[in-house]
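request received
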Amino acid sequence: MRKYLTLFFLIPPAILSQSTSFDFHSPENIKKFADYLFCEGDYLRAIEQYELVNEKLDNDTTKFKVMLGYSALGLYNESNEIFKGINDKSIFYPDANFLSFKNQLISEPGMINAPSIHSFNSFQLESFSKLTNISMLYEDKFNISRENFIAPFDAEELNQVSTFYDYKVEPPHKSPALAGTLSAIIPGSGKMYVGEWGDGITSLLVTSLFAFLAYDNFRADNTTRAWVFTGLGAFFYAGNIYGSVASAQIFNARIGFEFNNGLELFLKQQNYFLPEYDFCN
Amino acid sequence: MISVIKIFFAFLFVWIGTVTLVAQNLFDDQFNYARQLYNEGKYFDAVTEFKRLLFFNESKSYDYEANFFIGLSYKFGAKYSDAVRYFTLAEINYSTSDELFQTRTEIIKVNILRRTTHRALTLLDSLATDERFFNKMDEINYWRGWTYIFLDDWENASFSFSAIKANHQLAVFCDSLDNDLYSPQLAKILSIVPGAGQFYTGEYISGLISIGWNVLWGYLTINAFMEDRVFDGLMVGTLLWWRFYSGNIQNAEKFALEKNLEKTNSALRYLQNNYIGKKP
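response:
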């Protein structure tokens, strides 16, 4: 009986002391809370909490998670700043290194010139080759053979990657000079060359109509009206040449824009060849 | 012996009660701290502290309040999707019908603010048909009125506010604005006479220019037909006169819509800055 009594009286004070000593802001609890926020996808708060305990609970897992968080928030430079503090002996170093390439590619699109590191495993090495090759597409100078370019990619990626390659080697641009010249010879034909058939036919009809009206009025000695239509005809003719040149330039800009958009979408779909990290299960 | 056991259980009860109270006090303190941050307008930090409370409080005793205040904080930070998510979590944890009504109206207000007004109307309809809230019809009508304001339907807004009180301040305001708005349809019809639509919307110079162009191209067209230059007449008539005539109609409609937008924006600004009653 005495034993039970002692137990009954000792347990509550033990619990009490635990409860009263519970500290929401102890480093361990802050880290637990930060892990929860990270898994919730609330990266901004998770980073804030991790940074509160970084000095006390310094570990590379936390740093890598902060790096991932910044990258997910689109703060690529901040993410790469964290990378600088990750020890190259850490098991996360190769992943962090690869993530830094992704950040670099998004924040400053251009070729990745860094060499691969010896601690990359075979998957990371393959992903690195893919990302490096894709990054070449952002450069103006592009001289790599098709075989070498597509070599690292899997069968399901080949089709898309080949399209990017062809696009880069032979972009389907339209010549603004040719569009202008064609429209000068036959009004509207420059627009048709760019693919704007409706505008091209309208230009041809309107310019021809004003030319005819000018001719018809000169013939009927209605000089004033004839000059009005000549002026309008000349205005439309000049506009048609200018419009064709502008259309070709817009077409080329759109091609470039669509190419970059397509590339970005492809990289996003492939998650920049990064693996999925699961810190929550 | 019996009295010893009684004393033992009495002590046990007191001890456990104290332990529970102390633990509860910790969460109360955390809740009050988060509330204080919220009251000070530090919404980011308030959300962090409410989330911390939710994470550590395994008894779930603050699940309604904390989620509700997280929702409010996100709302003030214009993070509307997050706000709806947390109001919904609060709604799951409601204990009284008042709490349920409060979370639902907050969700409606967020929908008003993010202009998903049709969703807001659907939610208002579901509140109006719920017998638990038959005594809250005035508030339902009040938010319905605000929804119509953001839908740019001032007539229905006035109707909803009038359902609360015949001469409700907002009903009068909506009515007066609705009467003040131009009718784009009337502007178009008036423009059958070139320039009249522009005059109706107060754009006199534009109206005069429209009259001028239509008189010029009309004269040239009619003149061409009078002189038996049918082709010229057809060309000038279709390419120039018709173009300017239809442009005059479109122009009048555009002016009416633009002027209405100015008036409604200024009304919304007035309500935002000067109206003292409840706002979304």
